[in-house]
Every structure is written in C-alpha cells, then in structure tokens.
Amino acid sequence: MSKYLIWGAGGHGKVVADTARASGLEVAGFIDLDRNRMGEVVEPGGAQLTHPEEDFLASIVRGSLPDGIDGIILAVGANTQRQRCRMLLPENFLKTVVHPRAIVSGHAYIGPGSVVMPGAIINSAAYVGSGVLVNTGAIVEHDCNIGNDSHIAPQSVLAGRVTVGERVLVGAGAVIIPYIKVGSDAMIGAGSVVIRDVSEGITVAGNPAKMVTK
C-alpha cells in the first residue's frame, strides 16, 4: 500500500486522514511547523506528527520525498496557507484524494492536491483546480470552473456554469445560481444565496447575498 504524509495537523487534517484511508491510502504521518509536537498522535486513527516542516522542506529542496513516502496530501484549511504549501511542492508530489462515497463524473477534471470529501458531487464538464477542497456534501454542477486553492464548504451548491476564482471560500450551505462569476479571494457567507456576480476580494452574505466588506 502506498504511504502518504498529510500536511496540516489540525481538525481538518483528521477528516482528510479518514478520507485518505477510505480511498485505500496509508497515512504514514503528519507534517507540522512545531517541532516540539513531534510524536503527538493527531487523530483517532493513530497517525502521529512525524515530520517538522523545516526538515520536510529540506528534503524537497533536494528533489526527493522522505524515505518510504509516495506523496503528500494537503490538509491545511485556510486557503492562502494551503496555497503556500502547494506551491512549495512539485506537482508530481501532490496526491489528489477523492472519497469513495463522492460522486465524480468521468468527464470532470480534478487538479493535483485537491481533496473531495464524502457525499460531494462533481458533475459533467466541471473543472476543479489544484489544491481545492470540495467538502462534505457539496455539489459542483455541470460546466462549473473552480480556481486553485478554493474551498467549497459542506452542503454548498454551485449550479451550472458557475465560475469561481482562486482562494475563494464558499460558506457552508451557500447556493450560487447558474452563470454567476465569483472573483478571486471573495468570501460567500454560510447559507447565502448568490444571484449576482461577486467581485474580487469582496465578502457577501444573506439571501439574496449582499456585500458585507471590501
């Protein structure tokens, strides 16, 4: 069985570990910034913090993964930090993980380092970029385009032909109607209904969604 390290040892990392195991992957350990946490058990499956980030990155600079490791699974919840981790790694080191209880069209694309959680649906001709998190029960309908390092939170719905930029957070339970465009670094509040385009860097919330901050 192939062995993988999970980069990100918070609560999200626990769920990613479950998803990886359900997909038939072995979790060999976790990567974390804090060297003092090494050996700590991170999640109920028993995986430990095994690699300080500094030491891990030193091996990457040398062009190789740590001994016995086949790839890296990204489990950093914050979009900008997940992007930082992704961009430090060669693309061929990144593992894409899709839970077996997710439904993904054979005509959809999912980029390197993305994670698709249980119950998620990604339909025909959808494009999911690199380092994207499609969380539990989220729906990405046909012809949607999701930019790198975005997070489609639990139970959110992207109707057909929605375009989402990079590092976007679509909050839990939000609905975006067809053909809407959401700019990079925007945030959609939980439970919002988006019926108009959202500009870059804007936070919107409500039903219908309205601007909260620039």
What topology does this entry show?
Layout: E1 3-7, H1 11-22, E2 26-32, E3 49-52, H2 53-61, E4 71-74, H3 79-87, E5 97-98, E6 103-104, E7 109-110, E8 115-116, E9 121-122, E10 127-128, E11 133-134, E12 139-140, E13 145-146, E14 151-152, E15 157-158, E16 163-164, E17 169-170, E18 175-176, E19 181-182, E20 187-188, E21 193-194, E22 203-205, E23 210-213
Parallel strand pairs: 1-2, 1-4, 2-3, 5-8, 6-9, 7-10, 8-11, 9-12, 10-13, 11-14, 12-15, 13-16, 14-17, 15-18, 16-19, 17-20, 18-21, 20-22
Antiparallel strand pairs: 22-23
Walk me through the structure.
An eight-stranded mixed sheet has the order 5-8-11-14-17-20-22-23, with helices on one face. Strands 6-9-12-15-18-21 form a six-stranded parallel sheet, with no helix packed on it. Strands 7-10-13-16-19 form a five-stranded parallel sheet, with no helix packed on it. The protein has two domains: 3-93, 3-Layer(aba) Sandwich (Rossmann fold), CATH 3.40.50.20; 96-202, Hexapeptide repeat proteins (UDP N-Acetylglucosamine Acyltransferase, domain 1). The longest helix has 12 residues, at 11-22. Helix 1 links the parallel strand 1 (3-7) and strand 2. It has 214 residues and is of the alpha/beta class. Helices cover 14% and strands 29% of the residues. The termini are far apart.
